[in-house]
Design a protein that fits this description.
With 339 residues, this protein is α/β, with parallel strands linked by helices. It has two domains: 3-146 and 267-282, 3-Layer(aba) Sandwich (Udp-n-acetylmuramoylalanyl-d-glutamate--2,6- Diaminopimelate Ligase, Chain: A, domain 1); 159-265 and 315-332, NIF3 (NGG1p interacting factor 3)-like (Udp-n-acetylmuramoylalanyl-d-glutamate--2,6- Diaminopimelate Ligase, Chain: A, domain 1). The chain is 37% helix and 13% strand. The protein contains 13 helices and ten strands. The protein has helices spanning 3-6, 13-26, 30-33, 40-50, 83-91, 119-130, 140-144, 149-158, 179-190, 217-225, 239-251, 271-282, 307-318; strands at residues 63-65, 75-78, 96-99, 134-137, 171-178, 196-198, 204-211, 231-234, 257-260, 331-332. A six-stranded mixed beta sheet has the order 5-7-8-9-6-10. It has a four-stranded mixed beta sheet with strand order 1-4-3-2, with helices on both faces. The chain is elongated, with a radius of gyration of 21 Å. The two termini are 26 Å apart. The relative contact order is 0.16.
């Protein structure tokens, strides 16, 4: 089986972990005991019961679209509820979409400065309404778990559990390797066709800090200021903030590097995903169809018979070495990482 096939799912492994125990709890739900489909509100209540921490009143983990009392015919779990994902969910009869990130382009799902008549936003809302779909966000409480659910899922995907420090789960000490080798390893494990690196490619490192997602300049630079951190691994960051900060640190001959893997890498299929699907299928919550992501390795348009051929061409182009020259020539790419 080729690597692209193994790395098709774009959804966050951490969210699959949540649904594994949430849907296990649903199996004993009164609605299911009566052979009655649970509502979206009942599904969310089961998740709240099993998440393992007190539920906060001030949170973005709320319903974003649809009627919460809609009977659930199937559940789709995604890192980001793009229109493409919603279309695939609707086609598979999955009318409840649980997303980690916002649906409507803003942390509070109300796009700032955008009129409700905006054609893109309007069409997405109309699609959800016309298909009777419900969207619920699951972000804050999964991050508040100990350990952070997203962190735990990403660490598992990278196979770094044995390197993780007990006193600080965001720090890792591993066998010596170069920055270039580290970037190539992450690109392969996370299925990221583009991994960006700021730093000396041949610098040998053992101490790494990991900040999944987008933590912001303050947290990222605080990690880089630590003497026991040589490399900061992030999901995404601002060009004129942390990227520039690390470039300056490297120019000052400090032993620092930055690796940007993207906010939502393509994670491999996992046992946790299989457990989630089995629990939900047993509970009658999951249809037999699967939603696939809209990423490079799995955008298979139902209307284009030659899509696989085009994907292979794109994949070959992405694998070619490229180098971005900067004044200090410390941004680099390898055949595995791209740029």
């Amino acid at each position: 089986m080729e690597q692209g096939t193994k790395l098709r799912m774009r959804w966050a492994m951490a969210v699959w972990m949540t649904m594994a125990f949430a849907c296990a709890g649903l199996c004993g739900h009164p609605a299911l005991a009566q052979n009655k489909k649970p509502t979206a509100r009942e599904v969310v209540a089961a998740i709240q019961e099993h998440v393992g921490i007190p539920w906060q009143k001030e949170t973005v983990d709320t319903f974003k679209a649809g009627n919460p009392d809609t009977p659930v015919t199937g559940i789709a779990v995604t890192m980001m509820a793009t229109l493409d994902v919603l279309e695939r969910a609707a086609a598979n009869g999955q009318n409840l979409v649980i997303t980690h990130e916002p649906t409507f382009y803003n942390h509070l799902d109300v796009p700032e400065g955008m009129a409700e008549s905006d054609p893109v936003w309007k069409e997405k809302r109309a699609f959800l309404e016309n298909h009777g779909m419900v969207v619920w966000r699951f972000h804050d409480h999964w991050h508040r778990r100990k350990p952070d659910g997203i962190l735990a899922g990403m660490v598992h995907a990278m196979g770094w559990e044995k390197y993780q420090q007990e006193e600080n789960p965001y720090l890792f000490t591993m066998p010596e390797r170069t920055v270039e080798a580290l970037a190539a390893e992450l690109a392969k494990k996370l299925g990221s066709p583009v991994v960006r690196v700021v730093g000396e490619r041949g610098m040998k490192v053992t101490r790494i800090a990991f900040s999944p997602g987008s933590a912001g300049f303050a947290r990222e630079t605080h990690a880089l200021e630590m003497d026991n951190v040589e490399v900061l691994l992030v999901g995404e960051t601002r060009e004129w903030e942390t990227v520039e900060y690390v470039a300056d640190a490297v120019s000052e001959r400090k032993r620092k590097a930055l690796v940007v893997i993207r906010h939502e890498p393509r994670l491999p299929k996992s046992r946790m995903r299989a457990d989630w699907r089995r629990n939900c299928r047993n509970a009658g919550l999951l249809s037999t169809g699967r939603i696939r992501c809209r990423g490079l390795h799995c955008r298979c348009s139902r209307m284009q018979k030659n899509s696989h051929r085009e994907i292979r061409k794109t994949r070959r182009r992405a694998s070619r070495p490229s180098v971005l020259r900067s004044p200090h020539q410390r941004l680099f790419a390898s055949p595995q990482t791209g740029l």
